[in-house]
């Protein structure tokens, strides 16, 4: 009897489960029946979109395929990567140079794809370093970091690397206001209000080469600049920055920066700023910041220190910036595809204000101001407001758009994504996320031409979504199909680091430009070995340069003798392959740095200092052929006073050796 | 009883929620091989191989172009010498001595500019692969470089 009762209870529970399974809103683990086929990409087939995702505190940028959620690559950017030799090879070390010296780690917060006419063009993707303020440009023909520029007068580069609609500028706004670099920074912290400033950098991007240079900085009040987005279409020429801590607190910000009912979105008329620059109103300020550039011909990075930056003071030039009041510590600051609507997301608010660019312009023209904040005119809230989305959820963070006039806003506190109509401000749909979503991403969702179709929620909390892996869990992303009226969850997948913002572009935009090999004929590396015939060892005092080649499956030379204690050995390894996807690796016992991974036609250098007398094997780390296991060599280290001559060979044939000096 | 109920539930779940299958969301794969994987192909010409070169467009002269052969030697040193000796001795791949007598010139040109499809199809190359066990890499030779190498091979085989 008892057993039968139990059976009935179980059966009822099972039926309930079955019924509720069809309502994914009510049950986190359930998705509707065709989800798998929507996210399925058959073996050997390509994804529809490349998805560039910030690696957060990993400092790197990851690349996923959508809709499969497959990880395609992790691009090393601001953190060293021993796997790829990034930051360890002699060529890549300058890329991580800063005014503080070599910095091996950073926190890559946001990513932005380059645009032409407000549309994603697939040329470059930018990323920002939050800790030691920098912006990086990644070349999408090689998927490598091509350039990194440091930002003076800045700290916590957070509202970055957002771009104008023709990639004229990448911006970088400082989250942690600080005393300007050239001022005496040795001041009491509680003099924040007098001494701390927020600088916003406008980094010009060369149309052809992509090369970055700081065109000018705006000196702004000391607040926390959080996120930003450029105007587009009619609002092209303006940039919008969310700011919080307009209370200018310097301690316990959790409480002290949450005092005011409204903080601001700062509207910046950057075309006006350009006029002032032309008119010579900028001040050249002595500073120090690094600029690192990768040269694909020499396969090497170079870093230079720049000593000056042009600064415009917004307290004196009062028609560049205007403050728009925005409720409760705004985070997201997003401009819709038409360029008319600016959506502020107050992370402690329970409504979403939508501002109108047209109304903002009218208010500025009529001087419809509500006082002045630190020298900057404050536009009346109502005068700039188009309307508010009422009761959308709790804690709006960030908004992306589709091509049909809809907006999608993430809600951290109520852990959901809400779809609403921009024109009538009505909520259309809501879906839960697992858990506590931060940023969202719709392919092209911050451009003039969103590609739509998918939405990815990057969640801050993972908890029970995957098999547990101890106290530390990977982050959780969730893919939604947004092609219908209702958002449909179709895939959950883990991500590296902590993704903040992301971008996506149709695969075709990027695949067509892919570089498969570096042409040997173009190799301009100073230690390039043009074929095995040129392989050699050269001693310059206690420096020994090994001109080494790799091809399936041997090194040349693979026997080296005459290295002595006290020597510094530089292995300059040229990969002679000229075929796609045939890298060779190089590693030597006892190396205190990393390996090299050398792409076809490329030359890379590993510095190695012997720490004892003896025989040191080296080998290829990247499986290259059926005889990969045979791809190895030996290096003999003798005492400092030894007279073993410097020689190198392959298969008993001596390669060149020379003594210079 | 319990099992029956659960089974019933799963069936209704599948019926209730199973939407119609949609196409996979795959994009086009521009790098996918267009060559069929089959190794036997009745149209395969083992004297010519696969590629753009024919006796007609190659138009070899009986005499050696010495300057072209010298250029071929330079290309060889960068892109070929790691694996091939000019004698008949095998290094990673077979030595070059006599190759122009063993193979038609258009076969050589096709093989060195288009190795992968021929490694998959050519019976002689497959027999060679069993000996060497390393697939000859595509060294991305230009047409001019390939022609120069052929001229060097001819010189190496005694063409005057």
Automatic annotation (TrEMBL), chain A:
The UniProt record lists the keyword Transport: no
Q: What Pfam family is a match, any one?
A: nos_propeller
- InterPro entries (UniProt xref): Copper_CuA (IPR001505), Cupredoxin (IPR008972), N2O_reductase_N (IPR011045), N2OR_C (IPR034205), Nitrous_oxide_Rdtase_Sec-dep (IPR026468), Nos_propeller (IPR041114), NosZ/Cyto_c_oxidase_sub2 (IPR051403), WD40/YVTN_repeat-like_dom_sf (IPR015943)
Q: What class of enzyme is it?
A: oxidoreductase
In terms of one coarse class, where is the protein primarily found? Answer: other
A molecular function GO annotation: copper ion binding
Please name the Gene3D superfamilies in this protein's record: Cupredoxins - blue copper proteins, YVTN repeat-like/Quinoprotein amine dehydrogenase
Question: Where is this gene product found?
Answer: Cell envelope
What are the protein's UniProt keywords?
Copper, Metal-binding, Oxidoreductase
* Annotated EC: 1.7.2.4
Which domain of life, per UniProt?
Bacteria
- Cellular compartments per GO CC: cell envelope
What NCBIfam families does the entry give?
nitrous_NosZ_Gp
Q: What is this protein called?
A: Sec-dependent nitrous-oxide reductase
From TrEMBL, chain B:
Q: Which Pfam families match?
A: Cytochrom_C (PF00034)
Q: Where is the Cytochrome c domain?
A: 67-157
Note the PROSITE patterns from the entry.
CYTC (PS51007), PROKAR_LIPOPROTEIN (PS51257)
Q: Where does the record place Polar residues bias? A: 25-44
Q: Which organism is it from?
A: Candidatus Opimibacter skivensis
Span list, region Disordered: 25-47
Name this polypeptide is given:
Cytochrome c
UniProt keywords (A-Z) are: Heme, Iron, Metal-binding, Signal
Lineage, top-rank taxon, reads: Bacteria
Q: Which residues form the signal peptide?
A: 1-21
UniProt-recorded Gene Ontology molecular function terms: electron transfer activity; heme binding; metal ion binding
């Amino acid at each position: 009897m008892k057993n039968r009762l139990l059976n009935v209870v179980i059966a009822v529970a099972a039926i309930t489960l079955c019924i509720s399974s069809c309502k994914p809103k009510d049950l986190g683990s359930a998705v509707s029946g065709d989800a798998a086929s929507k996210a399925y990409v058959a073996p050997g087939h390509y994804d529809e979109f490349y998805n560039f995702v910030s690696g957060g505190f990993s400092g790197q940028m990851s690349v996923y395929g959508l809709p499969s959620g497959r990880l395609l690559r992790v691009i090393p950017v601001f953190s060293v990567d021993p796997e790829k030799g990034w930051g360890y090879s002699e060529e890549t070390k300058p890329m991580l140079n800063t005014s503080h010296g070599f910095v091996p780690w950073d926190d890559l917060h946001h990513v932005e794809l380059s645009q032409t006419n407000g549309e994603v063009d697939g040329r470059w993707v930018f990323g920002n370093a939050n800790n030691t303020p920098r912006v990086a440009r990644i070349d999408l023909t090689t998927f490598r970091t091509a350039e990194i520029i440091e930002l003076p007068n800045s700290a916590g580069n957070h509202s970055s690397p957002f771009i104008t609609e023709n990639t004229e500028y990448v911006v970088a706004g400082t989250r942690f206001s600080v005393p300007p670099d050239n001022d005496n920074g040795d001041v009491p912290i509680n003099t924040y209000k007098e001494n701390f400033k927020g600088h916003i950098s406008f980094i010009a991007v060369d149309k052809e080469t992509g090369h970055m240079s700081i065109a000018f900085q705006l000196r702004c009040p000391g607040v926390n600049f959080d996120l930003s987005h450029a105007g587009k279409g009619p609002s092209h020429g303006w940039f919008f920055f969310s700011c919080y801590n307009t209370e200018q607190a310097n301690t316990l910000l959790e409480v002290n920066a949450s005092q005011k009912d409204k903080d601001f979105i700062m509207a910046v008329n950057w075309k006006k700023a350009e006029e002032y620059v032309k008119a010579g109103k900028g001040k050249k300020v002595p500073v120090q910041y690094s600029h690192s550039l990768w040269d694909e011909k020499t396969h090497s990075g170079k870093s230079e220190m720049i000593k000056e930056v042009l600064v415009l003071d917004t307290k004196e030039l009062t028609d560049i910036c205007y403050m728009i009041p925005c409720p409760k510590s705004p985070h997201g600051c997003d401009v819709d595809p038409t360029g008319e609507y600016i959506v502020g997301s107050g992370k402690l608010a329970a409504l979403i204000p939508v501002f109108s660019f047209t109304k903002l312009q009218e208010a500025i023209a009529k001087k419809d101001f509500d006082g002045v904040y630190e020298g900057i005119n404050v536009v009346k809230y109502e005068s700039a407001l188009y309307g508010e989305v009422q009761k959308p959820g709790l804690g709006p963070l960030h908004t992306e758009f589709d091509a049909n006039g809809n907006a999608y806003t993430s809600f951290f506190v109520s852990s959901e994504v809400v779809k609403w109509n921009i024109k009538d401000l009505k909520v259309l749909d809501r879906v839960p996320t697992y858990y506590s979503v931060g940023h969202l991403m719709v392919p092209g969702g911050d451009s003039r031409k969103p590609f739509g179709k998918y939405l990815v929620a990057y969640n801050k909390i993972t908890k029970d979504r995957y098999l547990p892996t101890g106290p530390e869990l990977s982050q959780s992303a969730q893919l939604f199909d947004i092609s219908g009226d209702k958002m449909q969850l179709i895939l959950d997948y883990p991500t590296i680091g902590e993704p903040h913002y992301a971008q996506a572009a149709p695969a075709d935009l990027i695949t067509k430009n892919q570089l498969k090999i570096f042409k040997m004929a173009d190799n301009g590396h100073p230690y390039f070995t043009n074929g095995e015939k040129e392989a050699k060892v050269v001693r310059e005092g206690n420096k020994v340069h090994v001109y080494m080649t790799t091809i399936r499956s041997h090194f040349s030379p693979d026997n080296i003798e005459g290295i002595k204690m006290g020597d510094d050995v530089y292995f300059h390894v040229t990969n002679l392959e000229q075929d796609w996807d045939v890298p060779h690796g190089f590693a030597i016992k006892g190396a205190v740095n990393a390996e090299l991974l050398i792409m076809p036609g490329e030359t890379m250098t590993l510095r190695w200092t012997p720490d004892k007398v003896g025989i040191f094997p080296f080998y290829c780390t990247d499986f290259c052929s059926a005889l990969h296991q045979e791809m190895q060599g030996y290096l003999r280290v003798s005492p400092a006073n030894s007279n073993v001559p410097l020689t190198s060979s392959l298969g008993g044939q001596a390669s060149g050796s020379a003594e210079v000096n | 009883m319990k099992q029956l109920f659960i089974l019933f539930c799963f069936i209704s779940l599948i019926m209730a929620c199973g939407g119609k299958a949609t196409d996979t969301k795959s994009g086009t794969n521009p790098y996918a091989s267009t060559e069929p994987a089959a190794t036997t192909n009745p149209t395969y010409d083992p004297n010519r191989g696969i590629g753009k070169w024919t006796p007609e467009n190659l138009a070899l002269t009986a005499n050696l172009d010495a300057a072209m052969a010298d250029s071929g030697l330079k290309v060889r040193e960068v892109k070929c010498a790691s694996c091939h000796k000019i004698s008949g001795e095998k290094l990673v791949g077979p030595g070059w001595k006599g190759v122009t007598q063993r193979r038609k010139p258009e076969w050589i040109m096709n093989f060195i500019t288009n190795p992968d499809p021929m490694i998959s199809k050519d019976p002689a190359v497959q027999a060679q692969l069993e000996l060497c066990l390393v697939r000859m890499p595509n060294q991305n030779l230009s047409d001019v470089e390939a022609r120069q190498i052929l001229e060097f091979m001819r010189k190496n085989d005694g063409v005057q």
